[in-house]
Amino acid sequence: MAEKQQEFQLVVFTLGDEEFGVDISQVREIVRIVQITYLPKAPVFIEGVVNLRGQVLPVIDLSKRLGVGSKERSEATRIIVVEVGENTVGMIVDSVSEVLRLSNDCVEDVPSLVETEVPEHYIRGVGKLKDRLLVLLDLNKILTPEEVQNVERHVKSAASKAS
User: Fold this and answer.
1) 3-state secondary structure of 146
2) Is 1 part of any domain?
3) pLDDT at position 112
4) Tens-place pLDDT, residues 42-73
5) Can you tell me the mean pLDDT for 101-123?
6) Which CATH number is 65's domain given?
7) Domain that residue 44 falls in
8) Residue 20 belongs to what H/E stretch?
9) DSSP line for 50-89
C-alpha cells in the first residue's frame, strides 16, 4: 500500500529574476500596492506601514530583507499579507504568479550548489519543477522575534501619532 504523499501548497512570487514560494497556510491575502506611510528610524528593509481595512500593518521590502534585486514597482507589484507567529506583516514582491501544489519528493533541502543570493537560513528548501527551481522561504525566519517586536513598537507609535 502506497503511503500518502505530503504536499506543499505554495503561493509563488517573483523578486528580480528569482521565483519563491511560501506556504499558503501563512498567507492571509494578496493586495495591490497601496500608499505606504514611512516610519522614521525603522530598519532599512521596513518600508513603512499601511492601513488595510482599519488594521495598521508593517510592510517589509522582501528584496531588501533577502538582499536580492527586484524590479521597479509596477502594476504587477503586490503586497503579500502573511502571518508570522502571532503577527501579521505585509511583504512587497515584484509579482505573484500562481498557487501550486508540490509533492514532498519534489522538495529538497538547500543544496549548496543552488545559485541564489538569498542567505541560506531564510530558505526551507528548494522545489524542483519541470523547467525551474523554486526557493521555498521560511517566513518564521524572515523576521526575528526581536525585529517583530521592534516593528510592532514602530507601528504602535505611528498609530498613536495618527489618532
Assistant:
1) helix
2) no
3) 61
4) 888 999 999 998 888 999 999 999 988 889 99
5) 79
6) 2.40.50.180
7) 7-162
8) strand 18-23
9) EEETTEEEEEEEHHHHHT---PPP-TT-EEEEEEETTEEE
